[in-house]
Amino acid sequence: MVKEPSQEHIKIPIAMSRPYRWATGRYLGKLYKEARDNKKLVTNRCPKCKELLWPPRPVCGRCKVEAGEDWVEMSDKGTVIQYTYLVYPLWDPHVGDRVAEDYPNATILLDGGVYLVHKLEEKDPEKLKAGMRVQAVWKEEERGQGLNDILYFGTIEQ
Amino acid sequence: MANRVAIVGVGQTYHKSKRPDVSQPEMVNEAVRAALADAQLSMKDIESVFVGNMETFEGIYLPDHGLADEAGLFMKPGFKVATGGSSGGSAVVEGSNFVASGLFRTALVIGFEKQDAGDTTGAISAATTPVWGKGMARGALGEFAKQASTYMKQSGATEEHAAMVRLKADRGACRNPYAHLRLGLESVEEILKSGYLMWPLRLLDFCPQSSGACAVILAAEEEARKITNKPVWIADHITVHQEPFRAGTFGDPTGLETYSEDVAATKLYKRNGISNPRKDIDMAETYEPSNWQEMMLYEYYHFCEKNEGWKLIEKGITEIEGEFPVNPSGGVIATNPIGATPVIRVAECALQIRGDAGEHQVTRDVKTAVATALGGPNWTVMVLLRRFL
Amino acid sequence: MAEKLEELESFVIPGKIDIPNTYFAGLAGSRFLIELRDNRRIMGIKCPACNWVYVPPRSTCKVCFSKLEDWVEVSDKGTLLTCAIAYQPSPVQPVEPPIAYGIVHLDGADSGFVHLLGEVDFNHLRIGMRVQAVFKEERAGSILDIKYFKPLD
Amino acid sequence: MAERVAIVAAAQTKYHLNRADAEEGELAFEAIKPVLQETGLTYADDGNGIDSSVTCSQDFWDGKTISSTSVMSYVGAHLSTEDKVAEDSINAVYCAFGQILSGHHDIVLVVSHCKESQGDKSIIENTAFDPIFMRLLGFDFITAAALQAKRYMYEYGITAEQCAKVAVKNRGNAKNNPFAQEPMDITVEDVLNSKMLVDPIRLLDTKPTSDGACAMILARENKARKLTSKPVWIKGMSNCYEGHYLGDRDLAECDALVSAARRAYDMAGITAPLKEIDVAEISEEYSYQELLWMEGLGFCGRGEAGKLIDAGVTQMGGQLPVNPSGGMLSGNPTVVAGMARVAEAVLQLRGEAGDRQVQGASVALAHGVTGICGQHQCVMILSNK
User: Fold this and answer.
1) Mean pLDDT score of chain B, rounded to an integer?
2) Please, which residues have CB within 8 angstroms of residue B9's CB and are 6 or more apart in sequence?
3) What domain count does chain D have?
4) CA-nearest residue of chain B to A23?
5) Which of B38, C138, D37, D240 has the lowest CB atom count within 10 Å?
6) Nearest residue, CB atoms, B130 vs list A22, A86, A88
7) Hey, what CATH topology would domain B5-120+209-227 get?
8) What ipTM was estimated for this complex?
């Protein structure tokens, strides 16, 4: 075991943000376009297993085959499978700060059959439950950010 | 045709949140020196070096290059692997492959993370990019919280069971001088009093952010027998990756998918004649970032039936003195220097097989042990170790 | 939904990865930087086996893997081993370009010391020239406590 | 070596300044699809399919922790073996070579990708420098390379003209390579008159920003023979780390390359590299590096590479053509560059290099480099016999 010496420990803080220009590519770009222009969620379907891919992409990772362009429009309604809420603000590397997002974070099964992670409008832990029905609440402005064109998922009646 | 490979030396630093006293290369150097001392070798006996580390955690591009002057890479062949949390396990696998291949007689495998240099949750959240999942990431915490909530519902496990896992881990950690969190916890109630980080995960339910390093030295059979009279053989290893089709970052939050752990265990056991893991294997060190995860891993690795993981802890089966000890070192929930973590699992299994684990040596005579690693989205590495070939 | 894939657009999303880091200088680095800051001294460390003086110091000899503890002070003067002049701006530069960089063989050391060069006519920069460290007045315990190396007349 | 390993297929994307139209996986798939089609392979661990994938990418360039997740779907990773090597991609080929020789895998897919266009080169490279002693000085790779170029030129009397000749030769060669990004008809004067970036390195001494991907499949001998009539055998391969702190290194030398080359040559039984090797693909991110690396590879004595370029030894038709592809200078992304060298060597040994074919090539060398001033070097000897 190494003993800790008592000398002063010099530290060098470096805060260098790294800028990026990430591309969606054409398949995910299709989802972006439909979300931006029509507030719609679309994806493509695997020709082999017939499952919807998510996000849309040119291959099915499960069947390991090319997926092609069997595009499908999905409902923006779904069911909450799991949720959790944040108690402690966590560092968001894309923001560059601690973010105390006060919306619960949920895994949602869309009626089309794909899972996505998003925020829930309902903040009251007492009212949160797995199985609750939700629907996307779309941004009215500045769309073009894919799933972030959805503000959050609001609770809907059964 | 392939050479048989043995672990002939292991070494680790003590693990803490912060190591302000040492630079990153100096910290890694401690583990390398410890492994060399354990093997009674010098650096010139080392023919190759394989490194596991996740660069985003420290914000260092090509971090292995920065170690070259002080951690033994200078003028040696080797490379770095980065497979998320399993990086250290992958480094052991590649080191083992290169020795087995006959390309090198010895290999030094290094895993390290100096998490005092950055923000771990931030680095894990950066596993998503803004084009898919911006602002939705909650580090590993969010994933494990969701898995815990599902597991609770599906299996009937309770928060008390999770607390019992935590208590077991702490008992092990307190007997392991290198462990990070050595809390001296005394009761389940004490754990249930700790606050929620992210429901249902409590502060004491989740692993710490540790800074530390671990090194193991591998040697081909002929060399190994010269170096030590207690070689620990790498009988087999397997790596399986899993794609998160159901929006998980680690596996599948819905529990509906086949897990990489399940595939890895099935194949590894089959080709090594293991039909009853809890009988044919003597102990395990797993990569369990939360106590909830440990109960799930019991199931994924076939140590018990589905939804019965909590029964193992309830019956004390996985305690140090138990029938099938798991994580006698205190495990990942006590110590998690990410890149080093899977290497520590392998090193701890080797110590148990040698009978050199000191105060946390398990009661059962360990002839066979399995060390596992977990990386995102759900990377599984399993290393099967044996006292006899 | 009949568009051809080639007609679909790819969206480019600008963003960043922003996670601040803190690096501990460690055993050898801390003492080196403290000496720079407090005493304007440049310290090296000597390998007992290789008889080699490293500047900046480190805790282990890269060649023989000996532990290094034998501190020696080296001169703030030395000989230029190589140099380069960066003309184009980049976000990582500590001062405005053009910037001259050099590796200096300090008197008493066996390795080169990497730093900036200043107070120098770029046309007169040449390998083998004698240079001396210029310290900043305000020093913080950083490699930048040395402002640059300037030519000795 | 008890058993032989072959490359049975290799493919590259065309290299491009900016592939904003594709995300990383889509880009990689442009290289993966042809190797799957050529071999007819699918993913299976029954001895007849791809049973392991080794990917190579850098989290700092992808802007993403665990960057291999970008290509996971495209390399059949789901419930299969995948590993990621974080160096230049030639080391991913090395990793796959070790996996097969170890007996653990039979047929391995190796894939690398990088989109330099999406990140900031200076900032990313700066983070590779030791944070205590070098990073704050504002280094990036070209600044460090300029220190190396200056020292190398001083020590051995290498001239700016000789370095410029490398740039002219490689960009000219690129005209025969359909994958090359920047084929150019330029003269030594054009290079010497191009913008000074970091003295002594000028714009045309450097490579352009580049996006692209490369894929190949390795197989053990008994499988390889079934998969292709033109296997290219790995005869020798090794790599090596140099030290990190630039001041410690004699930048006019490249000891790590000498060491890696020695082991690769020993394995391949090569004693006179210039005579025994028919074509070399060398990773030259800056023009001086082709000369320095040629010395490290033992093609000539120390300081004599300038004479080789003057004498035309390394041009097409010379005794040892170097970089018939146009090399890195004609546009390869970092990370991918080493595998691009291997892919080009494979084309040469299969006689499929088109207008850049070196006639009768039977032994090729591929070289990859990672890090600052060539801190990590990898050498590979391939043959069609």
Assistant:
1) 93
2) B35, B36, B37, B38, B39, B40, B41, B216, B217, B227, B228
3) 1
4) B131
5) C138
6) A22
7) Peroxisomal Thiolase; Chain A, domain 1 (3.40.47)
8) 0.96
